[in-house]
Amino acid sequence: MIRLFRRIFLRNWGLKLFSFLIALVLWITLIPDDKIFDEKILTVRLDVHNIPPGMVLVERPPSNVNIIIRAPKRRIGQFTDANVHAVLDLREALIDVQDYYLNKNMVRTPDGAEIKEIFPPQVKLKLEKYVEEMLEVEPDMIGELPEGLGVVKIDVIPPQIRVRGPESKVNKEDKVRTTPIDISMLTEPTEVEASLILPNPDLRLSSSRTTVKVRILIQEINQKKAPEIKK
Question: N or C: more exposed end of the chain, with fewer CB within 10 A?
């Protein structure tokens, strides 16, 4: 038996090796390019779509995820983070759910590529209800009036402004302040327009109004006792 194998494999072994190399070269040369595949790792952006009405995203998932992509070797370079991205659809999301699984079907890519893996396989996010509240506007007065004058009344028009934001960020006890109003050069009753500053960066104004009017009533005062300021 051993002699038989030796005869088969060792007889004319040089010719057999040469024939094998020729066959290998022909196979590599003639095989279609589309049949040779390669893989690479891409870091792509993760987009969030379809946040349910009345909800707001207060804790966002990672902005990027990693994927392993498989495609014909001659085309693998065409797939980049510019034309491949992942989409997390929150159409059916619930407030009490924070962990969301990712899968290959969430990856958008040009034709001709296969998504082998996506990681992390799970991301965390947080949704809250969107609420509105009327908050008092408080003018920010800076500086001091010239000697002998005093502020006896301050009117803000409108005195309250409607804001909106995540439920946990809206506090009806908070106040919307104005940009600083310098009274050091005022000598008579004055009305100024001031911009609004929200108490929390997560809040937004509910209307297009971004300013209020502030009326400042000034009059001469008794140096011995200044009148009480009324707001």
Answer: N
